[in-house]
User: What shape does this take?
Amino acid sequence: MANSKDLVPPVWKEGALSYSTGLTFDTAKKMIDAAMSEAKKQGLTMVIAVADAGGNLVAFGLMDNAMLASIHIAMDKAFTAAYGKIPTQTWRDIIRQSPALIYP
Assistant: This one.
């Protein structure tokens, strides 16, 4: 098993985490529009949630025919990414290296 110190994201070690709520609705809407545009190019139907630095929902987009279960999943992923200060992919990698985090 990897040393637990190896699992700590560098940004956490640096201690320079900003919790500013500088994200505006207009910016969040542009992010959703860009994500939807890319999803359409790839032939996907998506649910997109954008959270501020505190994990609070700022904007939300639901494409026609998107899976309804994805509504809460998108909001939870946005919260986790904002609150944890790391992408969801990084959480997956951490948990894969240390399954005891979810299966005690």
